[in-house]
Amino acid sequence: MDYRRGRTPSLVGVGLLILAGSGAAQRSSPHFSTVHVPYAAEVAISDKPASPVLGVQPRVPRTHWLEGGLVGGVALGIFGGVVGHAVCTNSDVRQTCTGPTLGSAVLGAGVGFVTGALIGGQFPKRE
User: Fold this and answer.
1) Under 8 Å between Cβ of 119 and 70
2) What is the pLDDT of residues 68-93, one digit of tens each?
3) pLDDT at 65 exceeding the cut of 80
4) Where are the domains of the chain?
């Protein structure tokens, strides 16, 4: 076999890659858009420090994250327990189903709490 025959095209390809200039996407654009952040502008003109370490905490709107978490946790906890018990009782092995039922209920409650809290956190409380 002659191994030199396959080397020439690959060397030419590597040479072309080395000598190639930068593409249009790699060039930096002189027109960068700026992002307007109202909170940063308010802090810049305020004479109060914005850091919680220095004593002033930014006002965070209250949401329904806890209610959503509790509803989701209870609902998916019950659903997980029922599904875990059904899967365990349909098994061919005779065993107690308390452990798998409680385990699937706790797993379902954890997933439900996190999901419900994320959904409930999107709804602000009326003050």
Assistant:
1) no
2) 999 999 999 999 999 999 999 998 88
3) yes
4) 65-120
Sequence letter at residue 89:
T
Question: Count of residues for the chain?
Answer: 127
Rounded CA-CA distance 103/97 in Å is: 10
- Rounded Cα distance between 127 and 120, Å, is 16
Distance of alpha carbon 79 from alpha carbon 108, whole angstroms: 7
CB contact at 8 A, 76 and 109 = yes
Question: Distance between CA atoms of 46 and 48, rounded to whole angstroms?
Answer: 5
Residues 111, 73: Cα–Cα separation, whole Å: 7
Asked if 62 and 127 touch (Cβ cutoff 8 Å), the reply is yes
With residue 14 as reference, give the H or E element that holds it: helix 4-19
Q: Are 63 and 121 in contact (CB under 8 A)?
A: yes
